[in-house]
């Protein structure tokens, strides 16, 4: 049976520092690993969001174990600024985002996320909207190439797009297996051991779920919902996500004077809350964790704290030593 092993769980707990009576948002409930750990570490309340109805349904048993302390909401974390106030919550002591897909989603061929198993070319985390098959079969060759290059950082994007367009003239591409073999025919496996389809599948998944703009909205909203002293912790799994998180947190902490383009509500200029960066460098998982859970290998954790209103942003605070063996500058 599939299961999801939470990534950087101890680092997440240390960074979020849940306390008794606190109210927290787990914005990516998934298999509930983070929510469970929060509920076990303090007498707190956890609101949990996931856009995947299967994740919410699976969470019912955990909610039953913590009656009145775990509340599940099906929705997109980019909408948290409307979802939470509608549920009567307008202040949070902490928000955590563990980005990407869960092992449950990856391991179910019918969800269409995996190039390792054959399934319908879907990739939607929720139940609505455009599927990966819609994109693969309708985008122009040029738009496909741009998508693979921009969201997958795929250098062979033009060759792959050409092969996809040629193949779909024979018959629509409707399965993960067929798409993966089209890509592998263009790009044979190299010595890295990384499947040649990895980057293209990542690009499609990000686009199907509008992942980058979801993150931008969620970061601004989370900062707005945090009570003074509240913390925002984000675990990212690839450079496109992590770049957005790093830039947002750096700007929020007043380290970069440029106005934030990740701030659709004008948060940083309007209410001028003060934040401090808890992780001047992203935290990385330790060797024991990456050996036990390969999914953790690319994880990077960043954290931000909202200061009391009267405080000035601190000059260079950190709770983690920059010389910590798990801290690493990324990207340089
Ligand atoms: C990596 S998993 C989280 C795993 C979780 N921390 C655990 O320990 O079990 C990411 C989850 O976030 C959800 N998700 C991704 N993007 C989302 C979004 N924009 N809104 C809501 N949920 C999202 C996915 O459906 C998935 O279940």
Question: What report would you give on this structure?
Answer:
The structure is a single chain. It contains 15 helices and nine strands. The chain has helices at 9-16, 33-41, 53-58, 60-65, 80-86, 103-107, 132-138, 141-152, 157-170, 176-186, 198-208, 211-225, 239-252, 267-270, 287-292; strands at residues 23-26, 45-50, 70-74, 92-98, 226-236, 275-277, 282-283, 300-306, 327-328. The protein is an alpha/beta fold and 332 residues long. The model is unreliable at 315-332 (pLDDT under 50). The strands form two sheets. Strands 3-2-1-4-5-8-6 form a seven-stranded mixed beta sheet, sandwiched between helices. A two-stranded antiparallel sheet has the order 7-9. It is globular, with a radius of gyration of 20 Å. The structure holds S-adenosylmethionine (SAM). S-adenosylmethionine (SAM) is lined by residues 4, 6, 28, 30-34, 49-52, 55, 76-78, 98, 100-102, 125, 214.
Indicate the structural class: alpha/beta
The low-pLDDT segments are 315-332
- Which series of helices and strands comes N to C? HEHEHHEHEHHHHHHHEHHEEHEE
Give the overall pLDDT as a whole number.
Answer: 90
Small molecules held by this entry: S-adenosylmethionine
* Share in helix: 40-55%
Radius of gyration, in angstroms, nearest whole number? 20 Å
Query: What's the count of strands?
Result: 9
Strand order of the largest sheet: 3-2-1-4-5-8-6
Mass-distribution shape: globular
Question: How are the elements arranged and paired?
Answer:
Blueprint: H1 9-16, E1 23-26, H2 33-41, E2 45-50, H3 53-58, H4 60-65, E3 70-74, H5 80-86, E4 92-98, H6 103-107, H7 132-138, H8 141-152, H9 157-170, H10 176-186, H11 198-208, H12 211-225, E5 226-236, H13 239-252, H14 267-270, E6 275-277, E7 282-283, H15 287-292, E8 300-306, E9 327-328
Parallel strand pairs: 1-2, 1-4, 2-3, 4-5
Antiparallel strand pairs: 5-8, 6-8, 7-9
Helix pairs in contact: 8-9, 8-11, 9-10, 12-13
The structure holds S-adenosylmethionine.
């Amino acid at each position: 049976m599939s299961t999801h092993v939470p990534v950087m769980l101890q680092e997440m707990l240390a960074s979020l520092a849940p306390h008794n009576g606190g109210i927290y948002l787990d914005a990516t409930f998934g298999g509930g690993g983070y929510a469970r750990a929060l509920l076990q570490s303090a007498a707190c309340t956890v609101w949990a969001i996931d856009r995947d109805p299967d994740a919410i349904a699976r969470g019912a048993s955990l909610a039953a174990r913590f009656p009145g302390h775990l509340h599940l909401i099906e929705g997109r974390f980019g909408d948290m600024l409307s979802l939470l106030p509608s549920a009567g919550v307008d202040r949070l002591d902490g928000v955590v985002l563990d980005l990407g897909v869960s092992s449950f989603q990856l391991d179910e061929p019918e969800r269409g996320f995996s190039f390792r198993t054959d399934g319908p070319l879907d990739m939607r985390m929720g139940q609505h909207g455009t599927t990966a098959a819609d994109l693969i079969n309708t985008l122009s060759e040029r738009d496909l190439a741009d998508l693979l290059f921009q969201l997958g950082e795929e250098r062979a994007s033009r060759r792959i797009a050409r092969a996809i367009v040629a193949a779909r003239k024979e018959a629509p591409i409707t399965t993960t297996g067929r798409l993966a073999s089209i890509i592998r025919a263009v790009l044979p496996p190299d010595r890295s051991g990384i499947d040649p389809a990895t980057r293209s599948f990542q690009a499609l998944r990000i686009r199907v779920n509008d992942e980058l703009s979801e993150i931008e909205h969620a970061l601004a909203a989370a900062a707005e919902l945090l009570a003074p002293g509240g913390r925002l912790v984000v675990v990212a799994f690839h450079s496109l996500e992590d770049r957005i998180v790093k830039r947002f947190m750096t700007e929020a902490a007043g380290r970069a004077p440029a106005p934030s383009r990740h701030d659709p509500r004008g948060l940083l200029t309007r209410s001028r809350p003060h934040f401090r960066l808890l992780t001047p460098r992203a935290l990385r998982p330790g060797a024991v964790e990456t050996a036990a859970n390969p999914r953790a290998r690319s994880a990077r954790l960043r954290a931000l704290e909202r200061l009391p209103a009267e405080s000035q942003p601190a000059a260079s605070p950190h709770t983690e030593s920059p010389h910590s063996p798990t801290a690493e500058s990324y990207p340089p």
